[in-house]
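Run log, item B.
One chain of 207 residues. Sequence copied directly from the ordering sheet:
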Amino acid sequence: MAKKNARPRAAVGFRAHSGWAAVVVVGGKFASPLVIDRRRVEIADAQIPGSKQPFHAAEGLPFKEAQRLIQRCTDSTDSLAERALRALVGAVEEKGYRVVGCGLLLASGRALPDLAAILASHALIHTAEGEMFREALVKASERCGLAVTKVRARELFETAAAVSGTAADTIQRRLAELGRPLGPPWTQDQKLATLAGLLALTSSPGQ
């Protein structure tokens, strides 16, 4: 156990989209972060029509058919997310790190009504799809035994500043500088995923 815990710690940061997620594995500290891995993971099964936007695909279907389609897509996405995370954790551990947690960006956190009400509202359809893919990443993290740190996207920099004792504009500058030697892709997706990962690294046990 001592040998295992002697390995440097790392955490995974996610920014989810419809059917995929930007993922960055980060180590170090807020003042000197280290990007260990970054990738795009696909969490929608291309073999299932409508899997990238299942609630859109279900809109207009008879209700029972809509339920079946959404459940099939949810089950498939859950499986793909877990498979992708296990592969990522394995790759990071092969580099000598110990993955201790995952950070995930949330939307507004608005509670969703039942499926019938969701399918009757185009705005809620968008919300439900985002929630489905984010929840798949949460379940994957939990099934891999990793603590999940959740933070609303609009509160991310404020939270990071409070946790790190560093001004938000300084954090933004460091994130931009971090990506220069790495090269593309280093978009807002990677920057925010990195920050989510750093929050997970800070809040996960075993520092």
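Observations after the first pass:
- The domain at 2-203 is CATH 3.30.420.10 (Nucleotidyltransferase; domain 5).
- The chain has one domain: 2-203.
Flagged for discussion on Thursday.
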